[in-house]
Amino acid sequence: MEMSERLPAQLQCGAQLADLLEQVSTGQTKALTPHQIECPYCTAALNRLVNSWQDIERLRAEPVQPSPELLHRVMRRIWAGLDDWQVELRGGRGMTRVSTAVLSSLAFWAAAAAPGVRQVFQAQSREVGIEGPDRPKKRRQRLVSRENLRIEIELSIHYGFSALVVAEQVRRAVIAHVLETTGLDLPEVELTIADVG
Amino acid sequence: MDPDSTLVALARSGNANAFEQLVRRHQVRVFRIALGMLGDPRDAEDAVQETFLQAWRGLPRFRSQSTFSTWIYRIVTNRCLNLRRSRKPSQTVLWDQESGAPGPGELNEARDRLRVLRRAILGLTPEQRATFVLRHLEGRGYEEIVEILGISLPAVKSRLHRARLELAIALSEWK
């Protein structure tokens, strides 16, 4: 690359470099003013700015990839911080447990499919009685008894639907879906209707 | 509606697999912003990692006032701005030191020009650089940049104007 003189903020003809640059960066290089057509300073500056801008376009098009380990590093730390709470299911020979994360997902999809529901913001399984600061911080496996299990769902409903009717339909759908999939009869489903639209 | 809303809601419900999908979807763009802001791929990866962990922890408070992508861009931009402000000027940056095997003259020249451009971008103030990277390297719209940076539209335009001018003057000395 060879060096040439830096462009001044104001060209000898009085034109502002910033104005020419605005023209180049917005792709208006064909729409020249009568002055620009005649003026050698503007023409030269525009040519150089177009070249510079092409470099920016090239840089933008350059493929950029983080290392493949990045995703694993992020997820490893997330998994390490998760509690693994499980509920014991009634069954035949041997013990069957289901993670409360599975129950949350089942509740989420059942609620999302219920009539009148616009969007589910979250669905969480909780053990009643140990929330807030008493909740264990470290990842640990523990059994939650069915009696202490509570599903909490936050959602928005479509305008024009009765909140009470939608809530009851969601509650029934969640209980039925969890029962059908896991055999677990949920004692409590708590709903918050956070929005309507 | 935000195309990520279902995954966000599942992730907010504690579903780590859903969050993993969100990371997969957004990691390249988030990394590109961090790289443009910081210049060093290792620093950029660290910033991206901390960004997603902060997002995971902050999901219960995220109420979809903006899209997930805007929210995550805001987190990574703020993180990089804080890092850049606290970094000593003498610390080296690697983004402009990438070198490949020697090639034909034309290729070398193109590579040199990009190196000069990268160095010029890293010479902008952190605030100008954030605005420039979001607009011209990431292609975000003005309104979204307003949301990401939490400044007014005239402030975005003014920063962008100054950044482009600085770059044009710096780059114009190369034929």
UniProtKB/TrEMBL annotation, chain B:
Top-level taxonomic group: Bacteria
Domain RNA polymerase sigma factor 70 region 4 type: residue ranges: 115-167
Similarity section: Belongs to the sigma-70 factor family. ECF subfamily.
Keywords: DNA-binding, Sigma factor, Transcription, Transcription regulation
Keyword DNA-binding in record: yes
One Pfam family named in its UniProt record: Sigma70_r2
Record-linked InterPro entries: RNA_pol_sigma-70-like, RNA_pol_sigma-70_dom, RNA_pol_sigma70_r2, RNA_pol_sigma70_r4_t2, RNA_pol_sigma_r2, RNA_pol_sigma_r3/r4-like, WH-like_DNA-bd_sf
Segments forming domain RNA polymerase sigma-70 region: 22-88
Gene3D superfamilies: 1.10.1740.10, Winged helix-like DNA-binding domain superfamily/Winged helix DNA-binding domain (1.10.10.10)
Protein name: RNA polymerase sigma factor
GO MF terms, alphabetically ordered: DNA binding; sigma factor activity
One GO biological process term: DNA-templated transcription initiation
